[in-house]
Amino acid sequence: MIPGNRFLPLMLVAATIVILALLPHLFNSRYALTLLNQLGIGIVFALSYNMLLGQSGLLSFGHAVYFGLGGFTALHALNAITDGDLPLPVPLLPIVGGLMGLAVGIILGWVSTRRSGTIFAMISLGFAELVAASSNIMRGYFGGEEGISGDRMSGPVLFNLSMGPQRDVYYVIAAWMVISALLMYLITQTPLGRMANAVRDNPLRVAFVGYNPQTVRFLMFAISGFFAGIAGSLFAINFEIITAQAVGIEYSANVLMMAYIGGTGYFLGPVLGAIIYTALSIVLSAYTEAWMFYLGVFFIIVVLYAPNGVSGVLAVHEPVLRARLMHRLLPAYGLALVTAATLLAGAVVVIESSYHLSQPGALTATMNLAGIEFDADGWRPWAFGLGALALGALLLRETIHRVGHAWADVRHHLTGDAAT
Amino acid sequence: MNASPAIRLQDVEKSFGSIRIIQGANLEVRDGERHAIIGPNGAGKSTLFNLISGHLAPTSGRIELRDRDITGMAPYKINRLGLSRSFQITTLFHRMSVVENIRCALYYPMGYRYSFWRLCPRLKDVHERADEVLERLELTRRRDVMAGMLSYAEQRALEIGLTVAGGADVILLDEPTAGMSHSETARAVELIRMLSENKTLVMVEHDMSVVFELADRVSVLLYGEVIATGTPNEIKANRRVQEAYLGVEVA
Amino acid sequence: MEGWIFFLFNGIVYGLLLFMMSSGLTLIFSMMGVLNFAHASFYMLGAYFAYQISTITGFWPGLIVAPVLVGCIGALVERYFLRTVHRHGHVAELLFTFGLAMLIEEAVVLIWGRNPVPYTVPPDLDFALFQIGGMSYSAYKIFMMAVSITMFVFLYGVIARTRIGQIIQAALTHPETVGTLGHNVPRIFMLVFGAGTGLAGLAGVIGGNAFVTEPGMARALGTIVFVVIIVGGLGSLTGAFIASLLIGVIQTTAVAIDVSLTDIFATVGLDLRNVPLHELWSKRISDVAPILPYLFMVLILVLRPRGLLGTRDS
What we know:
The complex is a heterotrimer. In chain A, 74% of the residues lie in helices and 3% in strands. Chain A is an all-alpha fold. Chain A has 2 domains: 9-302, ABC transporter involved in vitamin B12 uptake, BtuC (Orthogonal Bundle), CATH 1.10.3470; 323-419, no CATH class. In chain A, the strands form 2 sheets. Chain A has a two-stranded antiparallel ribbon with strand order 1-2. Chain B has helices at residues 45-52, 75-80, 98-104, 124-137, 152-165, 182-195, 208-214, 232-237, 239-249; strands spanning 7-16, 19-29, 34-38, 60-65, 68-69, 83-85, 170-174, 200-204, 217-222, 225-230. Chain B is α/β, with parallel strands linked by helices. Chain B has 9 helices and 10 strands. In chain B, helix 3 (98-104) packs across helix 4 (124-137) and helix 4 (124-137) crosses helix 5. The mean pLDDT of chain B is 89. In chain B, the strands form 2 sheets. A 6-stranded mixed sheet of chain B has the order 6-7-8-3-9-10, with helices on both faces. Chain B has a 4-stranded antiparallel sheet with strand order 2-1-4-5, covered by helices on one side. Chain B starts with 6 loop residues before the first strand and ends with a helix.
């Protein structure tokens, strides 16, 4: 923290709260509220995931276990409220789900955090499959195909929220998001949070400054399970139904990609990632059946070329902007944009055409893409698509070269400035 | 000063598969002395350090820290008993600032342990201690630089700093001056002398001038055995040592 | 009794198939430190390629061509992508192969559609070879067994007799020595990755028609293969072999056991009807068969964190 700016974080939090309070008045359609609620849930989930990947260096393929079990517990608790067995206001349900996430995190974490790195990743996948497969067997708890559903308009009323309208749910989710994000940020500032970073960077040395790396990993894992459980409970309250999908591998993969695409190196990276990922999947899935393919390509590009995620890419430009050197990068970036557009156009035509042909329901080969009609089995789309891909590949070489040069130039200027 | 030795090794053996790296090493490090371990490459010096610090468990034998059996104990437990070590290859927290590196070595010994309810920016005592340590390391100027960005000599200094910051009274330094220039070595020697005051120091060192300048006593390791222990002068005069070791490197 | 032999036989056939996958995965992991998340995706590619080839030429050419094609794709992936991402560390490599697995699955859907394809057992082998106690043993299962065993004998020969085999052996137990073996290491990596994925492709060719060839097949098998190498212990081919057979047999025979844990404990006077997770204990073993490999993995992790025969920590 920069000295003299002690109130900056507080002001940021206050501004966030004000914006969050105003949002439902600015976007008051049902659709917008649904989207905002999903974003809020995604943000808490992604931040809890980053306690593992970004802060402790633990790559988990099974984080949905804590999310989903938290959600199921919240819904069972909700039904207990409806039946009059549990005198708890619905907005406080996330505490119950969070505790479940914590409990499961303690049990599974005890076994899996003995290892780190790729072994830990494998074990997390094993546990994810264990729970996912159990959901087919323990139908009483997971509710089989239909899942478990409940009615959130029951129990004692808190803050005058009837929990009927989407807007009430929004406020509950927003409040829990702010509280969880704040707590998770503060944990990064504690000795445990710092040592988690240390374990991530150098577990060997950690053992020689008095810490057991396993204990550090275990505690972070359990706490992360708690916040994942809160996210799962918010999911349960929002949809009033939860199915075994919520503990499944897809949800685990989603949160991994959210956090990674946003960037695991900065606290707010996963927030950015949750927004980008949610927006992309909603927009893409509205237009194409192959949206998972596009998301996969995007993810791989991030892994290959921007391992610090979108927030990492933004962060390296911050000193450039401050030194007013951005104009030196822009020509190269312009070329990059052309290249990306060419590759994208080619890829889209090829992917959509082949997808169209593989559909059992496709009666004709005629398809429509961006208002243009063509036959997917003719030579035209394929010639165009493959041609664009080839041209894009050529441009890509030149682009990489130019961007490299522009950056070398900018770096030269930056260090030159620092020296004088 | 205590009469019992700081570290005692009894018939310690360590094998990797069929290869015996350490074969029946016996060693006593007296309380408060500076003890150097020398020996040709591959004699097992680093392995010996790994055994004492708990990084490896011996195949057989017994290791004691102040009469307490620490054989096969986990490194962090040995560390909490007051033994700290450095590494031959610099082992820092590269993505943290210099001062944060030192603080990481302080949280546990200063009682904050696994706390997730206390905020680091408010731990004044840790901050003060960390700044003191930086002062002694002459790294105050570089306080907020990422550890990975330091020069090699500075990284080595920080490595020693991380080792001593927690207040351990038995310090193991693994080749603290390796790869340093002449003037850097001279400064490192002064630093080690100052930081090891009133502590027990064991160091592996290749540079004989450093060994003879710093060490009260020297042990010679050859093929995984301690073949001699004595004052620097006794070691210089020892025939077996001359033949086995000094004869090769100094002549 | 005859029923048991039948289930045991099926378990062994399945276990050998698992070993075809886990041996390649172990080799790649031990030498390169890369945990290939997409390994089962190459198995799936093998099955789909073999299906495509079989629609043109019949089954037999695909037995050779499909694994070779898959191996080539594997080698290209290593050469052009894994090598790039290598400098970001093992976690980045794992993330890359995770993304790759997702892409391959989606690509398979794009090309062959979401429904299973009619990849069937070749008619020359589609008959019952013999019968024991009323259970017929299909010729194709025997053929699968023969292919797997031939493959292992060949692989064993390569590892025991050739220079590359010696390097692989050294790398299995002491991965840090790989770097000291000279400058052709990248090529060896490409070769090992290509061979490992090719082996997975072969498993796909002979497994795809014995089971079902559909886009979800990689995901279903992928985790089981991970479980196999955790149970067997990293860096141990023998461990992978034992674990493959164990898990193969556990999964197939469990289907035949008609009692529940509650029943079993009741015979010794323990009542499990009111303990936590009682729903789970009251299920018949045959119903919980899908989770048994994972429970087995947990058991091993608690009792022997390094796996049955593992010597390495990472």
